[in-house]
């Protein structure tokens, strides 16, 4: 059983898969309490424990086969059985995580690692890195990263709106470090879920 706060169909708005039609499975709970969290109701609000079969039944209502499991923090739970179950049903499974327990999602097809503590970064177990940037962020730990995986900077939003100063800082950093990429929360710009 998995604590599901919602399942919905929309467009992936962030990172490598931005722009794809996606089925989102949002799980309840998080090990952090970030003051900039844009999903606080999903860490403290209501949820329903659902089986793999119940989740699959809801996903089958839509034509896409790209599933994003997010939260809260999905690696609070061992999701490998759910991931393998969905993969056997023909779904590509992506996960967005702060890296709490990467072993809980190792079966995933794609892992977006969005760490909040930049001083203790996992070296493997993910496909892309995404850092939430405030215009006053100390990016010193990012300068030491040498890797081949995509590294995205995403402007910290103000709830459901983009913050102009944070966007400008990300653009400035990417122009200084052209190996980095910009990830805008496209769904917020489009005002869709």
Automatic annotation (TrEMBL):
Cofactor: S-adenosyl-L-methionine; [4Fe-4S] cluster; Mg(2+)
Catalytically driven reaction(s): 6-carboxy-5,6,7,8-tetrahydropterin + H(+) = 7-carboxy-7-carbaguanine + NH4(+)
Top-level EC class: lyase
Positions of the Radical SAM core domain: 17-193
GO MF entries: 4 iron, 4 sulfur cluster binding; carbon-nitrogen lyase activity; magnesium ion binding; S-adenosyl-L-methionine binding
Name of one Pfam family that matches: Radical_SAM
Binding site for S-adenosyl-L-methionine: 36-38, 72, 114-116
Binding site for substrate: 11-13, 26, 70, 193
Pathway: Purine metabolism; 7-cyano-7-deazaguanine biosynthesis
Record-listed [4Fe-4S] cluster binding positions: 30, 34, 37
InterPro entries referenced in this protein's UniProt entry, alphabetically: 7-CO-7-deazaguanine_synth-like, Aldolase_TIM, rSAM, rSAM_sf
One GO process term, biological-process aspect: tRNA queuosine(34) biosynthetic process
Keywords attached to this entry: 4Fe-4S, Iron, Iron-sulfur, Lyase, Magnesium, Metal-binding, Queuosine biosynthesis, S-adenosyl-L-methionine
EC assignment: 4.3.99.3
Cofactor binding comment, as recorded: Binds 1 S-adenosyl-L-methionine per subunit.
Subunit structure: Homodimer.
HAMAP family tied to this protein: QueE
Function as written in the Swiss-Prot or TrEMBL entry: Catalyzes the complex heterocyclic radical-mediated conversion of 6-carboxy-5,6,7,8-tetrahydropterin (CPH4) to 7-carboxy-7-deazaguanine (CDG), a step common to the biosynthetic pathways of all 7-deazapurine-containing compounds.
Family statement: Belongs to the radical SAM superfamily. 7-carboxy-7-deazaguanine synthase family.
Name of the protein this chain belongs to: 7-carboxy-7-deazaguanine synthase
Species assigned in the record: Wolinella succinogenes (strain ATCC 29543 / DSM 1740 / CCUG 13145 / JCM 31913 / LMG 7466 / NCTC 11488 / FDC 602W) (Vibrio succinogenes)
Species classification: Bacteria, Pseudomonadati, Campylobacterota, Epsilonproteobacteria, Campylobacterales
GN (gene name): queE
């Amino acid at each position: 059983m998995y604590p599901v706060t919602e399942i919905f169909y929309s467009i992936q708005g962030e990172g490598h898969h931005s722009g794809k039609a996606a089925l989102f499975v949002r799980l309840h709970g998080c090990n952090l309490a970030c003051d900039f969290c844009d999903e606080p109701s999903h860490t403290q609000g209501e949820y329903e424990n659902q089986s793999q079969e119940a989740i699959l039944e809801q996903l089958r209502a839509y034509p896409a086969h790209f599933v994003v499991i997010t939260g809260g923090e999905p690696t609070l739970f061992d999701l490998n059985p759910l991931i393998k179950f969905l993969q056997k049903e023909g779904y590509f499974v992506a996960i967005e995580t702060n890296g709490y327990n990467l072993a809980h999602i190792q079966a995933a097809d794609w892992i977006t690692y969005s760490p909040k503590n930049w001083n203790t970064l996992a070296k493997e177990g993910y496909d892309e890195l995404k850092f939430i940037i405030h215009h006053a962020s100390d990016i010193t730990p990012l300068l030491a990263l040498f890797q081949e995986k995509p590294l995205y900077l995403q402007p910290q939003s103000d709830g459901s709106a983009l913050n102009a100063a944070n966007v400008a800082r990300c653009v400035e950093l990417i122009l200084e470090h052209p190996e980095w990429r910009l990830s805008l929360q496209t769904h917020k710009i489009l005002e869709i879920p």
